[in-house]
Amino acid sequence: MSLFKGLSAFPITPANEHGVVDEAGVMRLTEHLSANSVDSIGLLGSTGTYTYLSRPERCRAVRAAVKAVGGKTPLIVGIGTLRTDDAQNLARDAATEGADGLLMAPVSYTPLTQEEAYLHYKAVAEVTSLPLCIYNNPSTTHFSFSRDLLARLADVPNIAAVKMPASAEGAVSQELAELRDSHIGKLAIGYSGDWIAAEALLAGCDSWFSVLGGFLPQLAKAMVEAARRGDAGAVRYYQQALQPMWELFREFGSLRVAYAAINLMGLSSAHPPRPVLPLTLHNQKRVGIALKACDNIQHKQ
Question: Signal peptide span per the entry (predicted)?
């Protein structure tokens, strides 16, 4: 299976209040995902709080994950950062530590032009042989890729995939068809925004870049497998049953919910990096209720 296919599970990166990565915690989470047969692990994505970690700490996280999975599960490592030369160094680091692929968002303070983003990606792709996925995430980067830019990037050697954001519900199928029919179709096309996962999977997207998969890999994998075998009824059942979790994702952001869920499951005791605050006790209880509903889904299947 291609690297950017199937379920790509995105875990948190446990770290202390000073941004020092908990290597044992990273190993525990990535072992959990690998043991549950996710197709890849998206390390240091937005859920993995890559922008809050220094270069040495990112290296430590990748090293720990590589040690934990032992080559059994491909690792896609986030290398987004402000400067092009720093992103190039992060790409080199990831390769040295044993990553299988790269994921890069156009992180910026001064808003980037389309040409600046093109040259940024091209420069990073030129210093690595690892396949690179474009991280299209305008809600956090405040940069929107035009289709012309994505088409240009599709011709850059080593750029192999694009991670698309959630589009309006009901519009995913049309958007995916248009992308496939254009020059962008040279790339593997996956989606994030877990609440539109059912629609994207049924429309035939290449991959689901999933926050849910980072803490409930069995459930996320079951949804992907149902889509693979064409069982639309099962996919829609999962989607409906997961509404309480999706509502929490949209209300608080999936990052805060992921931390709460992972803590409640006993997989970690880490907190999100400040200034991001954990959910209140009341809302943590709501996450617990959603987790119980997820457990019921798994037992019914």
Answer: none
